[in-house]
Amino acid sequence: MLNRALAPEFGQIENIKLIEANPFVLDNGLKTFIINGGEQDLIRIEFVFSNINWDAGSPLQSFATNTLLNDGTSEFSAAQIADRIDFYGAFLQTEYNYDQASVTLYTLNKHLSVTLPIVKAIITDSIFPQVEIDTFILNQKQKLSVNLEKNDFIGRKVFNETLFGNTLYGYDISAKDYDQLNREQLTQYYKSAYQPANCTIILSGKVSDKALNEINSHFGKDWKSADSFKENNFDFTGKPGAEIYIEKPDALQSAIRIGQLAINRNHTDFPGFQVLNTILGGYFGSRLMANIREDKGYTYGIGSAVVSLKNAGYFFIASEVGADVTASAMEEIRKEINILQNNLVSDEELSLVRNYMLGSMLGSLENALSHADKFKNIYFSNLGYDYYDRYIQVVRNITAKDVLELANKYLNWDDFQKVVVGKK
Question: Are residues 259 and 384 in the same domain?
Answer without folding.
Answer: yes
